[in-house]
Amino acid sequence: MKKFSRKISFKDKRGFILDISYKEGFNHSALIYSKKNSIRANHYHKKTTQITFILNGSCFYFSKNLKQKKTKKIKLKKYDYLITKPNEVHAYKFLEKTEMLVMSKGLRGGKDYEKDTFRVQKKLT
User: Fold this and answer.
1) Spatial contact of 3 and 90, defined as CB atoms under 8 Å apart
2) Phi, psi of 112, rounded to the nearest 5 degrees
3) In what order do the strands lie in the sheet with 39-44?
4) 41, 59, 86 from 93: Cα distances, Å
5) Among residues 23, 27, 39, 60, which one has the fewest Cβ atoms lying within 10 Å of its Cβ?
6) pTM for this one?
7) What is the mean pLDDT of residues 81-98?
8) Which of 94, 98, 101 is nearest to 19 (CA)?
9) Are strands 10-12 and 28-34 parallel, antiparallel or unpaired?
10) Could you give phi then psi for residue 110, rounded to 5 degrees?
């Protein structure tokens, strides 16, 4: 897991442009709304890479590689994003109502939603 903070690409009197991704190919994207104190994920993907971009709100992101014992925890806030690689167990705990955009390279949307999702017995949060 690697966390990034996005910087504004262009700004003038009309507003600004913030590039979320550049030269990336995605199979799926989703807007996810979560209520305060809710928890999502506690799973991993064998083949799918995900990019999470926080539009509004904040959360803690928990992760660990399948081979690791120690869980990493970071706080994400507005305009932060991170990349979740295959075989990375991950979970989110939302500190307030939060909207995030998740873009996936691999099976993740529609009829394929659960095809590359593997739930874990031992929850990260």
Assistant:
1) no
2) -90, 5
3) 72-77, 58-65, 88-94, 39-44, 118-119
4) 9, 5, 20
5) 23
6) 0.84
7) 95
8) 101
9) unpaired
10) 55, -130
Identity at 101, one-letter amino acid code: L
CB atoms within 10 A of CB 122: 7
Distance CA 64, CA 124 (A): 9
CB contact at 8 A, 90 and 52: no
- Span 68-97, average pLDDT: 94
d(CA 120, CA 2): 21
Please report which confidence band the pLDDT of residue 115 belongs to, taking 50, 70 and 90 as the band edges: confident
E strand intervals along the chain: 2-5, 10-12, 15-17, 28-34, 39-44, 49-56, 58-65, 72-77, 80-84, 88-94, 98-105, 118-119
Task: Note whether 55 and 18 are within 8 A (CB).
Answer: no
CA atoms within 13 A on the CB side of 34: 25
Tokens of 121: 């017995």
